[in-house]
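Posting for a labmate who doesn't have an account.
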Amino acid sequence: MAKIALTAPRVAGFSCPPDKAQAFLWDSKAPGLGLRATPRGVPAFIFQSVYQGKSLRITIGDAQAWRIPDAQAKARELQRHIDEGRDPRAVKAEAAAKDVAARVAQRRESALMSEAWAEYIKRGKPKKKAAWKPRYLADMQKMASLGGEPKKRGKGLTLPGPIAPLLDMRLKDLTPRALRAWHAKEAQRGEAQAARAVQIVSGFLRWCGTEDAYEGLVDPLAARDPKVQDQLPSAAGNRRTDALEEGQLMAWFVGVAQLRNRTAAAYLQGLLLTGARREELAALKWSDIDFRWGRLTIADKVGDTRSLPLAPYLQHLLQGLPRIDKNPHVFASAIAIKGRIADPRSAHTEALAHEGLPHVTIHGLRRTFALMGEAAGCPAGAIAQIMGHRPGSMSEKYKPRTIEQLRTYMAQVERFIVTKAGIQFDFDAGQEERHGDVVQFTRKAA
């Protein structure tokens, strides 16, 4: 194999004859250094030697990118590896792996909360649940909103959510000290929202601790640090006990009756008459209702689903709702084609304001059902089962009752509420309505 001194003109003028697959030009100064050319390719510097009795060839790089002295130095370096008993290919792979690891470590060190937060929203989920509940997901997105959007109601732009200031921070900087300072600032805007934000961030950090990409970058319990938790308002002091009183039922039904959105009106009444959680009832589909046998099946927070007896007045309300083509939901959205009612709070606020009633939350309607059930003389265990409480979570531990056993109590509570509301309704005819009769009813003036 003839060798010559490689020069710039020789390298620039070297090419492969068209009748050959490849051609070589070997350097006389650096051992193993050569120039390889193919009919179509650009000439490249190569290194060729023998390692452990076998021929070895490594491409150094494009002849247009490498200077001859640099290629010679590289060839000598590769030969030194062989002389030291190391495979140059393994050395190269090891160096590449270290480079990748260094870049990954650098990215990890500089990873922002916003990056992990996007993954959390996309892939995170509650324990033992298939996906985020719509309302909780909406809360998280609102909490982390950057603001600056036109308000849906009123003038001006929206403000950033309480979690937004954390998004530009590195994950490694989300320490208990940093979270204490963040919470103290956000609490000045609103204690309840700031406390809620701490709970959400706590769940996010615990999730990061289980992900390979973020493991070791965060303290999963940073938001649970005693010095952070001590700043939060007392849970007992913030526990809501709002509910409607018996004397307020008539005014409440009058306020709901004047709502222009009939679907929202029926939904609010359904919450009060079943004690269901807001998302449980909002997800109700027509296929979940058996009008013939008077029962409905709803998604349950504790189990997968639970079945409830369909009392006469609620059945009348549901049968009066329109069925929107291709929308399976009973409480269909007026905006989304296949959607369902999402946020009934504005409608409920309007109903309360119409009659001058004090503020009652949507969950307060669930508490109202429990209170009215007690006032109607129903066993606490039956009410607990209807509402989907865990066994033993109320004062009376209940034995599971059949749906027919619950029907008596469901009708008893409904009759009590409707009567107290001053609504004239023929419950006997309501029972017959399941066999095709149409019920007419009138309400007394409030």
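Reply:
Got it, the structure tokens are right above this. The chain has three domains: 3-108, 113-238, 246-443.
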